[in-house]
Amino acid sequence: MIFLRPYRHYFLPFFIQVFITLIGTRFTESIGLINIAILHLIPVLVIALRGDMVATMIITTISVILFDLLYIPPKYSFNVHNLIYAWSFILFYVVGYIITFQSRRLHSTAIKDVLLSTLSHDLKTPLSSIIGNISLLHKREKLNESDHNRIVVQIKQSSQQMNRLILNLLDSARLQNTQTLLQPQWCDWEDLVGIALQEFDQDHQLIASSIDPELPLFWGDTALLVRLLVNLLDNGIKYSNDDTLISLTIQSLNDSIQISVFNQSPPIKKADLKNMFEKFYRLENTADMGGSGIGLSICKKIVTAHQGVITAYNGNGGVFLEVILPTIKHPDIRPKELL
Amino acid sequence: MKELVLIIEDDKALHKMLSFALEQEGYKSLIAEDLKSAHRHFQVHKPDIILLDLGLPDGDGKSFIKMVRHEVTTPIIILSARNDEKEIVTSLDMGADDYVTKPFSMHELFARMRSAYRRASGLNSSSPILTCGSLSIDTQLHSAYKHTQLLKLTPTEFNLLKYCMLHPNQVLVHARLLKEVWGVGYQQEMQYLRTFINSLRKKIEDDPTRPHYIMTEMGIGYRFFCENSSYPKE
């Protein structure tokens, strides 16, 4: 039954079709053709609200066929004697199309709303830390050296966090249209990791990286791959037990590159493991983490744009995030030089 | 002597902060909020260093670089927004000396200014031995050392290192490195550069993923970082 899961939104309209057909065929005379036609529009409306054009087309076609076959004279044939019914069929499709289109628009505004509220929350968190700390500095009195330093470090970290979030947003906009905007070139993984690590100055020592020294160059978008690494590490730091090591491993498999980030943490529920890459999904118990739901969803987009897959699984007293990126293009074999 | 810095930047908060920080550091500063006043200040006051934001209300900052380079070699440092790698590379090709991306730290900006100014005032040494931290190379003998230990470098690796050490703390655009080390016609062959930087780092860096010498400038090129080079600090 598992293979039916992606099609489960068809169940309700199908059920309604069957129900209407049962009623309609029984009481055709007393209800009248017009009302039966209207009844058959109900499943079309139900499916159209999902905003899926293909599904709408399928359900509408079923409605039209049923209506034609069962009610329109001559019954039980596809012949239509009166042209007026052909118009009804077209109207079925027009209604289905218009509602699908409208519901798509509603959908996208709903997403924008979520985006805005998440964003303002995520930007406000570091910002309030910055403002709070600055007002402490402003007062000046009674601050000893170490407090002063702690405050300045906090301001710096919060600003870096804001900067990271803004960079993510910019990339997210760029990723809306991956095919045209991907700028691939030859990348060296050690180099990418080096740039990514620069973004974490305080937490630097908490990250242990091990990179296969024989890793070939990779054909990909440098900026996005760096963002992928930064987000994976950032996520690892945020959700790990304090002061434990985050490990980053990159190795070459047959025709692909495997990146895995491990952090110690209590195991994550199965459903959460699946959903954590969806946009703005955040684990229930982490609402006030000050992190952003956007990081991992961007990871997924970046990985998909490079034809790869990203998965999360529990193990070893922590959580692994694993990325597999296929090597699509191979570098020219390096001209061997003699020492 | 106090060097005069011309700040060409239309954002008030930013140029106020810049001129304050520069003053603290011992520079004098002048502010231009658009190209027109930048031209005027440049002609009248002859600044020693120019900080230039590329997006100005009355036109493209790149035309200003062109104009300045026509006359003098005053160091120009670009203040750039991110996602502008192409703009940065073009500006560097047109004669800008260096760049910082917003948001930048003052520390970073001062370092860039110092090194650009030093280069412009021609304090380069002509000795065949160049040193930088624990690295040193002898350009005549074609040998490189780390902590007095001979490094086994291939000819290309050596040329790459030599070129970097001859241009310390300077942004080296990909195409320029490829042209200077590999030759004309190789400007697009990024995979050579990536491969050789990788192998060179393995030989000279303690930890290649946390490089100390060859820093990556994403989307632009590399920078050979050198704290105590054979160049005198002012």
Describe this structure in words.
The complex is a heterodimer of chains A (339) and B (234). Chain A has 339 residues and is of the alpha+beta class. Chain A has three domains: 2-106, no CATH class; 112-175, Helix Hairpins, CATH 1.10.287; 180-326, Heat Shock Protein 90 (2-Layer Sandwich). Chain A contains eleven helices and seven strands. In chain A, the strands form two sheets. A five-stranded mixed sheet of chain A has the order 2-4-5-7-6. A two-stranded antiparallel ribbon of chain A has the order 1-3. In chain A, helix 1 (11-26) runs antiparallel to helix 3 and helix 3 packs parallel to helix 5 (83-139). The longest helix of chain A is centred in the first third of the chain and has 57 residues, at 83-139. The termini of chain A are far apart. Chain B has 234 residues and is an alpha/beta fold. Chain B has two domains: 4-120, 3-Layer(aba) Sandwich (Rossmann fold); 129-224, Arc Repressor Mutant, subunit A (Orthogonal Bundle), CATH 1.10.10.10. Helices cover 41% and strands 23% of the residues of chain B. Chain B is built from eight helices and 14 strands. Chain B has helices spanning 12-24, 35-45, 61-71, 85-94, 106-120, 155-166, 174-181, 190-204; strands at residues 4-8, 28-32, 49-53, 55-56, 59-60, 76-80, 98-101, 129-132, 135-138, 143-146, 149-150, 171-173, 214-217, 221-224. In chain B, strands 2-1-3-6-7 form a five-stranded parallel sheet, with helices on both faces. In chain B, helix 4 (85-94) links the parallel strand 6 (76-80) and strand 7. In chain B, helix 6 packs across helix 8. The longest helix of chain B is centred in the middle third of the chain and has 15 residues, at 106-120. Chain B is elongated and about 55 Å long. Classes of the chains: A alpha+beta (339), B alpha/beta (234).
